[in-house]
Amino acid sequence: MDFILNEEQMLLRDMAARFAADARARQEKTPEEPGRRWSRFAELGLLGLTLGEAHGGLGGGGVETMIVAEEMGRQLLTEPFVPAVAMVSPLIGELGSKDHHEQILPRLAAGEVLVVPAFLEPEARYDLAQVATIARADGDQVRITGRKAVVLNAPQADLLLVSTRSAGATGAMEGISLYLVPCQAPGVSLRAITTLDGRPAAEVNFDAVAVAATSRLGSAGTALPAIERAVDRGIAALAGEAVGAMAALLDLTAEYLRTRKQFGAPIGKFQALQHKLVDMRVALELARSVAAAAAMAVDIPDAELRRRFISAAKVQVTRSGRLIGQAAIQLHGAMGMTEEYGAGRYLKRLVVIGALYGDFAHHLERFAATAEPAGLPN
Predict the structure, then answer these.
(1) Measured between alpha carbons, how far is 125 from 103 in angstroms, rounded to an integer?
(2) In the structure, what pLDDT confidence band is assigned to residue 336 with cuts at 50, 70 and 90?
(3) Closest CA to 243 of 279, 287, 309, 196
(4) pTM of the predicted model, to two decimals?
(5) Least confident span in 17-21, 106-110, 113-117, 261-265
(6) C-alpha distances in angstroms, 78 versus 71, 141, 283, 304?
(7) How far apart are CA 82 and CA 356, in angstroms?
(8) Count of beta carbons in the 10 Å neighbourhood of residue 207
(9) What domains are there in the chain, each with its CATH number?
(10) Which residues on neighbouring strands pair with residue 163, listed in sequence order?
(11) How far is the first Cα of the chain from the last one, in angstroms, to the nearest whole number?
(12) Which is more confident, 143 or 260?
């Protein structure tokens, strides 16, 4: 597969790399409010990356999203770029009404409002059709009752994009609808948690939460295919983020082997450790290749082909992340386990990415269930 960035994409990569490095340096020097960092994303146009120009965006696709996510992973940034920009913005653009487009999308691009997805439920594992959160009509309103698990960045969000069941039994493919729910609406309660890698998240309960019927995105009961596309976009972006984290961890490890001395010589001179480093490099390049394929696949209309490439990426990125993370800790020795040193933080990020939106076993099974395609279009 021919994958070469064009001039605009290279400029985006350079800008994102400078911005992410500066954001991390600022955070380590003087921690600042998350809202201020998010505003700088907006100032550079990154929050409108996946929106059309008519809505104040840049019209980027999967490749552009991957480019930015990779630089965020390299610097261990925790901003909600993947849930908000890679997943929610295109979903509102696809299913939203004219009012949604006019009232919400420009504000998303400007960083004035944060919307994150709330799709997964405690008993659902990774099955997006396992929706037990109920939406019942009540006059010109809808009342939502249910619970969502591990909603990333929910404590910072203004609105949640919630999958609900308006018809059918739990697990049915039909009958799923999407609603925009204000986080401050009566009946919404959050139990804040922090993920292993330091991302803010929450378990969210909805107790007969009243929202306007016009807050629904798209037609009633038909949202599941769009939700699946949004989650696949998120997985592709996370694959890019993982590649950035793996590349930074490999660089960190290589530098340590060059400077750490034992028996009067840098330990990187020892052939056994060089072999380990080569294994890490091979794993990184495998992950980079499948992440690029996934980024290209998110925008193709063939759902089965998209699922195959996305799941292949998740499987390989999880495998590579585990190999690189564990080898880095081993090569660093006890230093790699300290909180102050970066190696452990990168490993935590890779572990979390491996679990988000489907773990290794889930995506291996999904990959095996799809038909083998002829390949991606050029």
Answers:
(1) 34
(2) confident
(3) 287
(4) 0.93
(5) 261-265
(6) 12, 35, 24, 31
(7) 11
(8) 13
(9) 7-110 (1.10.540.10), 115-221 (2.40.110.10), 225-369 (1.20.140.10)
(10) 178
(11) 8
(12) 143
